[in-house]
C-alpha cells in the first residue's frame, strides 16, 4: 500500500463551503444525492478530486451538465473533474448498501438501525467528496425512509422540517450551522426511544438532550445522561466552553469499531459506553460510560470547533480530549485512584507499543492506513504530553493558553504546532525543546542517584536520561522531563522538601540544602512525566514510602516496586524478601486513613505483562509461577485479615457512592487472595459471593476468581452466568472475556472453543474483542510455548480481515512483540505473522501492522 507522509501536506485545491445531502434510505440499497458548491482554493489549474470507495456511481453533473461516462472513475479511484471557473456546483448520485457494509465504516446497518461512522475516512463510502479534515462545509441533510422501520431520523445540527411521504414513507431535514469536516457527519435512522432531558448553559440557553436507544434499554441510560450534564457543566467551569447548538443527541448502537464518535450534535456510541445498570454493568463500566460520554462531549470544542488540519495531527484533538476527560473523571471521583488507573493503562498499552515495532511519535511522520493510528500513543501518551504542559505552566497559565488556542483557532483545522504556540503565547513559556515530545518516539528512561554530604548538610540528586531507539529513529536528543520530586527524612519520616525538577539535559544535578541526614527520595510523584525511572532503593525505603509518602501515586508506586522486586528476585531463582511485601500489604490493609479504592489498588500485585515488561526477555511461565506463588503466600500470611476485609466490605444495598465502589473493588481483591491462599473454603466463598451478589461488580469479580481455578464451582458459575444473561449481548461479552482472561491451564483450548460458540460472531467487534482482544492480553495463555495461541490469533485475523479489517488489524500487536521473547516463542510468533502476510487480498490495515511487526 502507498505511504502517506506528513511532509507532503498541501492545502486543498478545492473547498466545499456548502453541501446538501439527500438520502433515500434502504438497508439494501440507499441512494445518496450530493450537491456540492466548490470553490477554487488559490491559483492553480488542478482538477477537483473527490474520494469515493465502494460507491456505485449513478450520475454526476457539473453545473447541471452531465459528465460523460468515459470520465467516470474505475473502482475506488477518485472522481476527477477538470473545472474552468472559480466556483461550480457538482451533483453526484450514488447507491450504497448498508446491509452489506460489514466494515462498519460509512453508512451501515446494526440491529435494525441505519447509522454512520465516518472518522477517519468513512465519508467517502457514503458519497464522492474531498475526504480530508481541512475541508469544512455547512451541511444540509434530507433523509427519507420507511416510517414503520425507521420512525426516527437524526442528523447533525438542528431539525428543521419533517413530513409524511407516499407508501408509508416519511422524511426529515436537518441543518448544521457550523462548518465541519466530513468525518463529523452523522446520520441515524431507526426505531429508537429517547431519554429526553435538558441543560441550561452558562449564558442561559436551553439545550435539548436526547439519548436514543431501543425502548427496552431506556432504563439503562440514566448514568450516561447524568454524565452528559456533568460534562457540560464541567467544561463551562473549567475551560469556559459552552455548548453551541439547541440539541445534543446520543445514539447507542451494538456494532461499533471503537468506543464512540463525537459527530457534531449527534454522538454515536458503542452501546457498552451508554447502557449500564447495577445488575448488568460493573463499576468499571459505569466509570467508562462517564469517561467516554465526557470525552465525546469535550470534543465539541477540542475536535469539532477546532479540528485537525490532517490526520498526522490526530493527537491534537485526542491527546487533549483524553487529558480533559481524565481530569473530569478525577473531579467526579477519586483523583488519586483515577491517576493510578490512567498510569496503569498507559503502562499496559502504551509503553509496550513504544518499545515495539509499531512505535511512533504522538505526531507520526507517515502511515499506510490512518485507522491503525488510533493508538495508545496518540491518545494516552498524547494526554500525558498535555498534562506535562499543564504541570509546567500551572493551572492559571495553562487556562490562558487553552483560551488563546480556542479563540485563535475556532472554526479552523489546526495543527499540534498551533496548540504548542498557544501555550507559549498564552502561558508565557518557551517550549522549543519540549516539542521533541511530538517528534520523538520511545519511552525515556531516567536514572537517578541520590547522594548526601553530611558536612555541607546537602543532598545531590543526579539525573540522567536516555531515549531508546525506535523504528526509523536513532540517537535521540534529551527531552524536557518535569519530575515532581520530594525528599523525606529517614528518622522522622517527615517530608523535607518538594520541588518540580525539570530535567532537560542528558545529565543534570540538583542540589537540596539543609538536609541533615541521608534522605529518602520520592521521584516522579503523580507520575508527572511518562518515563521509566531506574534507581536503587532498598525494600525498607520502599516500605516506608508505601506506608507514608504523602503523594498517593508515589505510595502506590513504591508498593508496586516492592512487589516487582520480590517477583523479579523469585523469577531469577533467588530468595526473595516476601516478608517486606507482606508487611507492606498488612500496613495498607490496616491503615484507617486510606480509602478502600486506594487500598485495592495498592495491594494488587502487578499484572503478568507488566512484570514481563521489566525483564530483558519475557519468560511467561516463570512469571506466572512466581506471581501465583507470591499471591498464595500473601494470601496465607494474612488470611484472617483478608477474611475480615471480605466480610467488612459486604453491603446490603447498592450505591454508586465512592466509598461503596471502593468497598466492592477491595472485596473482590480480598476474595482473590483468600482463594489464592488455598483455603479449603475458597471456592465455596467465591461461589457464595457470585450467587449472593446484588450487582455485576461483585458477581463478575467472583466469576473471574473462579474462572482461574479448577473446581466444580467454576463450571457451575459459568453455566449459571450464561443462562442468567442469555440474550443480553453486553453481559455475554463478559462471559466470553472472563474466560479468555483466565489463568486456567486450558485457556488456549477454551478460547478456541469460544471462537466456535454459537454466540460468537465476527460481525460484532465487541464480541471479537471480548474473546481475542482479551486473549491477546493474557500473557501466560497467549504465549503458551507450543505456539497454539499464536496460531489461533493468526486464524482469527485471517478470518476477520475480509469482514472488518479495522478490527482485524487491532489484533496484530500482541504477535508483533517477538523481539521480547526467546525461542521457540519468537520464531513461532514470526511464523504466525508470515502466515498472515502470505494471504492474498489482505487489507492495507492488516498489511501495515503485520509488515511493520516483521520489519
Ligand atoms: N474520534 C473517535 C475515533 C473513531 C475513529 C475510529 N477509526 C473516537 C474518539 O476518540 O472520541
Ligand atoms: Zn476522542
From TrEMBL:
Domain of life: Bacteria
GO molecular function: alanyl aminopeptidase activity; metallopeptidase activity; zinc ion binding
Keywords: Aminopeptidase, Hydrolase, Metal-binding, Metalloprotease, Protease, Zinc
Domain Peptidase M1 membrane alanine aminopeptidase: 224-426
BP GO terms, sorted: proteolysis
Catalytic activity of the protein: Release of an N-terminal amino acid, Xaa-|-Yaa- from a peptide, amide or arylamide. Xaa is preferably Ala, but may be most amino acids including Pro (slow action). When a terminal hydrophobic residue is followed by a prolyl residue, the two may be released as an intact Xaa-Pro dipeptide
Peptidase M1 alanyl aminopeptidase C-terminal domain sequence ranges: 540-855
Keyword Transport tagged: no
Cofactor(s) of this protein: Zn(2+)
Aminopeptidase N-like N-terminal domain ranges (all copies): 44-184
EC number: 3.4.11.2
InterPro entries, A to Z: Aminopeptidase_N-like_N (IPR045357), Aminopeptidase_N-like_N_sf (IPR042097), PepN_Ig-like_sf (IPR038438), Peptidase_M1 (IPR001930), Peptidase_M1_dom (IPR014782), Peptidase_M1_pepN (IPR012779), Peptidase_M1_pepN_C (IPR024601), Peptidase_M1_pepN_C_sf (IPR037144)
Span of domain Peptidase M1 alanyl aminopeptidase Ig-like fold: 442-535
Biological function: Aminopeptidase N is involved in the degradation of intracellular peptides generated by protein breakdown during normal growth as well as in response to nutrient starvation.
Family statement: Belongs to the peptidase M1 family.
UniProt name for this protein: Aminopeptidase N
